[in-house]
Amino acid sequence: GAQDSCSHRCGELLGTCSCQVTCQSLGICCPDYKEFCLQISPYSGSLMGGKDFLIENTAFNASSVLTCRFKKKINTSGYVATDGKAHCISPLLYETGFIPFEVSTDAGLTFPYSGTWLSVHHSKVSDGEKCTLVNETKWQYYGTPNTDGNLTLTWAHQALAVTSINIEVWGYQETGDSYSENWLAEWKYLYTLAKEIPNTGNFSFIPVPAKGNYSTWDFGILRITPSNYCDGQSNIPSIWSSEHALAWHLGKDFRNDPNAWATAKCIEWDRKEEKLPSFMEEIIDCPCTLAQARADTGRFHTDYGCDIEKGSVCTYHPGAVHCVRAVQASPRYAAGQQCCYDSTGTQILTRDSTGGSTPDRGHDWGSPPFMKPPRIPGFSHWLYDVISFYYCCLWSDNCHFYMKKRPSSDCRTYRPPRAASAFGDPHFVTFDGLNFTFKGQGEYTLVESDLTSLRVQGRTQQVHFPNGTGAQVTGLSAVAMRENNSDVIEVRYSEDLNLEVLLNQKVVNFSEQSWMDLKGLFLHSTADQNITVMFSSGSGVEIRGSGGFLTLTVLLPENFMNHTQGLFGVMNGNIEDEYTFRNKTTMSVHASPQQLFEFGANWAVENGTSLFTYDTEFLLNNFFYGEKHNASFLPVFFPYEDPADPLIKEMVLLCDSDPFCRFDVLTTSSLHVGISTRQSHQSHKLLVENLKPDMSLLLVISCGWLDHPTNGRKNGTAYLLGSTIHFICNQGYELIGSKERICQVTGAWSGDTPSCIP
After folding, report:
1. Where is the SMB domain (predicted)?
2. Out of 331, 423, 475, 749, which could bridge 549 as a Cys pair, Cβ 3.0 to 4.6 Å?
3. Do residues 395 and 471 both lie within one domain?
């Protein structure tokens, strides 16, 4: 019979062949799979659009009229280059993430070709793709005292293959009623700054106030386009600048008296804020210490504006060495949290210092479902939290207005997450801290939760000795995960031992983007391939390759208490019920290794609930058609220590008293495996230590901020257990109440509120 076609069917499994991404490695693709299912380069670009991308795998007829359609509704023009390769132009989008697109060759009648485009936050595109505002501060302070003269714009001229260009000014606004259905976001073309100038990559000018009411737009962006397009034409090849405060084009009223103009704007912003609902109640509290903030990777991520790994250049937060942002926006108002810390690891509060962290009405990264205020990535945040900072703090001296509306959160309601880990030839440390070894071969449920349908599954494969023969132990070779109806992420070692990350069965390429906004989760990969998955519930999964196995850590917030099961146990603070079977029966924590083997086997996954991708003959035969728990594979339960073996001496030196390290050296004859097991074990212990800095108290106690008395001052800005604050009155005043107050175990300050009387 005739073979099926992938026209209009990419991603589907058809009767006679497949149009799914796994078809290539399995050799079952429909003959026209490569024609209709598109591969593109580059695969990502700014949500502002205007990026030209190449369709790599399909040759089109040079006379075809190409239309590229994104999300079934936004059309942009494509073209076929002289080499026969097709190109599309990405559109302006008000969202980030993978966006489906289709291509038509018959002027938009049918769209049989399809692929996906990754839209990213405007700050996440490479510098070469943007035009540069030379000395950006000068642009954003232009017209304030001592800031005048020429402004210069540079760009990579080869990014637009034309001889003359236009430079346009665009403004951003949000109209309608706040937090209502008619609240809308819009990027709007304002005017053309320079017309038909040579595409040299450099333009200098002396800015003048914009004509008419354009000068009232104070937040916007520049766009460079080929000059053969109409002014303001949408979705054409473009190079955008970074978004910025448009001080340089503001009106005469700003230039004559910037301080008065900005003060009026600041007071107007303050009045508007009064009328808006408070978002402070629903944002997550900050971690109490820098160590906690860096350990709670499921809920907090480095704020790139103040990063300890990049030399702590903290322009907006003097005195801070590191800041983090809450990964998820708050549920109702989509607000963001920021937390900054000083060199002692103590949180800096705005009430003590201008370097303190400020929460955001609009989360900088936006939040699903995007599209409407206050969820537009980057730009909603600019409108409520950044341009207002210019009004009140940078262009005028009214920062107290801003700090009053954006005070730092302290850590009184912060509760650290619990961590569980698996590493080596699998050793497990449960959420409640029980250690055990389970060396089954198969696919197992590590943790699942009825709270959010979170599922994390692990696959173990036989380990081989340095000489290539099989050892009687296994190691973690793949981990797959999902929460509710999120995307499915799998991290695995491929058959040639490369670390791969799969998104819904397709290998992810991190060459252009190390951070991805996906459905129900964020995905991040560091340069040395540490993978972090941050689910919308705040649960986090960290995976890295070490010694040929995967090391895995799962972090769960406190609301998962009593809602977990699987090999990582029941998270409830009680280790006695860690070995709980599917049918809810439990086994003693003193069970033998053989009994533990039965416990592990009980948590084997089934094909119906497996999240893994079976895209090779080996995986299909061994894990899909084969048993999920290989009952015939019997591991070593008690490894033998031969005193005459020279390896033993080195092992003792290397492992010290770490039992997992010793076990792995003995069962694999590899010191390398032992080292990485020991490192993984140590980092788990350190993580747990960092999350609970005071082991005698399961949480860090904060007594909250204390003010200085009127007509007096205070010494001390630490508010955690054991901290002391001293109070002194100004000359001519006498102190009534406590001279010093200490933060107590109860979370209350000792003594009485001091006051200074004449």
Report:
1. 2-41
2. 475
3. no
Written as one string, the DSSP assignment of 1-65 is -PPP--TTTTT-B-SSSB-STTHHHHT-B-TTHHHHB--EES-EEETT---EEEEEEEE--TT-B
* Vertex 733: Cα angle to 730 and 739 (nearest 5): 75
**Secondary element (H or E) of residue 268:** helix 258-275
**Sheet with 470-482, edge to edge strand ranges:** 442-449, 454-464, 470-482, 489-493, 499-503, 506-507
Q: What per-residue confidence (pLDDT) applies to 94? A: 97
Same domain flag for 600 and 720: no
User: What is the rounded distance in angstroms from the CA atom of residue 318 to the CA atom of residue 291?
Assistant: 20
Instruction: Please report the pLDDT score of residue 113 as a whole number.
Output: 96
Report the number of distinct structural domains present in the chain: 5
- Cis ω before 646 (30° cut-off from 0): no
pLDDT of 324 reads 95
Q: What is the pLDDT of residue 453?
A: 97
**The pLDDT value given to residue 546:** 78
What percent of the chain lies above the pLDDT cut of 70?
98
| Amino acid sitting at position 742 | I
Q: What pLDDT is stored for residue 757 in this prediction?
A: 86
Q: How far apart are CA 188 and CA 269, in angstroms?
A: 22
Q: Which is it for strands 113-120 and 44-46: parallel, antiparallel or unpaired?
A: parallel
Q: Are residues 425 and 568 both part of a single domain?
A: yes
Strands (E), 338-488: 338-341, 418-423, 427-429, 435-437, 442-449, 454-464, 470-482
Residue 703, CB-side half-sphere exposure with 13 Å CA sphere: 22
Q: Could you tell me the CATH number of the domain that includes residue 98?
A: 2.60.40.10
- Are residue 231 and residue 264 in the same domain, yes or no? no
Please report whether residue 2 resides in a domain: no
Q: 490 and 595 share a domain? A: yes
Domain with 718 in it: 712-757
Q: Give the pLDDT confidence of 683-713 residue by residue, as tens digits.
A: 999 998 888 754 434 456 788 888 889 999 9
Q: Tell the residue number behind the tokens 């290397």, with chain if given.
A: 654
Backbone angles phi and psi of 467, in degrees to 5 = -85, 0
Tell whether 455 and 596 lie within a shared domain. yes
Name the pLDDT band for 2 (thresholds 50, 70, 90).
Answer: low
For tokens 């649960």, name the residue. 539
Report how far residue 640's alpha carbon sits from residue 654's, in angstroms, rounded to the nearest whole number: 18
Which helix (H) or strand (E) segment holds residue 687: the answer is helix 671-691
Among 113, 7, 10, CA closest to 60: 113
Q: In the listed set 104, 120, 136, which residue is the last one of a domain according to the structure?
A: 120
Overall size of the chain counted in residues: 758
Q: What is the mean pLDDT of the chain?
A: 92
